[in-house]
Amino acid sequence: MDIYLPVADVSVNIFVLLGLGLVVGFFSGLLGIGGGIILNPTLIKLGIPPIVTVGTSVAQMVGATVSGFFAHLKLKNVDLKLGVVLVLSGFFGGGFGVLLSKILEEAGHFRTFVLSFYAFYLAFTGITMFIDVIKKKKEHKKGNLKNFLNALPLKYRFEFGEFSVLIPIFVGTVSGFLAAVMGVGGGFVVIPALMYLAGLPVNKAVGMSLFQMIFITAFLTYFHGTVNYGVDIILALILMAGSSFGAVFGSAFGQKLNKNITKIIMASLVSIVSVLSFYQLFFEKEKEKETIKEVHNLISDFAHNHPSVYSITVIVVSLIAGTIISMIAHRLKVLIEIYMEKRRFYKG
Prior knowledge:
The protein is mostly helical and 348 residues long. It is built from 14 helices and four strands. It starts with a strand and ends with a helix.
């Protein structure tokens, strides 16, 4: 059953989109990363214009991060001073990324830029992770890195530790830029960076990543909607529904795997997406509709004629929908856990 996406101006099978959301959510819950690295190349493959793919991917993350954000806030895994630095630097990096996206889109090179970024960045990430699994220990390199970080100026005592302000500025700027141009959550940048560069425990790093991304994704949704007209609310809601439920099963399954297996799965996944991006970049011609054009329907006219109001509406709807969906998904997770506990009890 096809559904028409009014801003993207394409029709896609709704069950394909829901299935894609489920798969993305599953791997997000399993690996603890944003699903953009899987989602966006696949949406481009389905014929969604790259500029809409990136803008909508960011929009659906607004709702997807709600439950995790509040959970980590209650667990006191959020340092507000550190969060402000990450958010403000993320605004800078994200704003630059959106403007660069507009320039490249108008020049007709945005698809090539995005796929190139995915292909080469993910290839590097996958190879690095495979090497890390094989070698495991790199103590001498860690010592050199620690000496470099200790020598950085502008040290400040945050709630979670004392380190140079340059570290969160760098992390926030890079993650904001990548979120803007690639439509990915900053988790795969922010979490390891805060762990290795700032010395935060993994739970604190995850909390700070979610704190930053709920503000950055809202900001970028507004920016993409007003500058690039690249946010499709229908597509965002469908993907959000699928990914929220997929994350429930992914997180439950992930608790049973050891860290090395999880690393191997993640390295394999990013390598596969890298190969797919290489193939799309060099062997597939761009489809005619992959360049966004102004179309006339109720939602598209609203998006083009009142971009600020439309963008704010998308943010509010995403937050409300994300909260409701996460509550349902959490309830489903509890029911599954009760069912599994009963099975273990009767077997015992």
